[in-house]
Amino acid sequence: MSAEESQPILPVSHAVQGMLATDRSLNLLGIRVVSAGGDQAVAQMEVTADMGNGHLIAHGGLIFTLADTAFICACAVVGQMPVTSSASIVYLSPGHVGDVLTATAEVRHRVGRVAHCDVTVTSDRGVVAEFRGSAISVSAR
User: Which of 37, 71, 99, 118 sits a CA distance of 20 to 30 A from 108?
Assistant: First the structure.
């Protein structure tokens, strides 16, 4: 995937653009942030054969990474850099090779520098996972 293909195709807030510009893992995994701003974000990833685990389904760590990407983008605000302080995930059904997984994140509660966010990861087959995380914002670099 070229650098141009990995760039977001829909509006992404200024606060998120800087993070995405330096996040090399997104290109490596084929994750693209479709939209981000207003306490919401959407990211997608196609499950390739190289992403399968010993059970021949999407590796849970990669599903977590997709959800974490949408999560941190939803938590971003101008002038601050969110970092994950805690996160958990519940896997509800497998992702399969060829599936396009979509992580939809929404901040549920924000107090000062702390944001709590829920992320649902889906495929055409239904809900794959539910992720919940908390982030704390620190001064931007």
Answer: 99
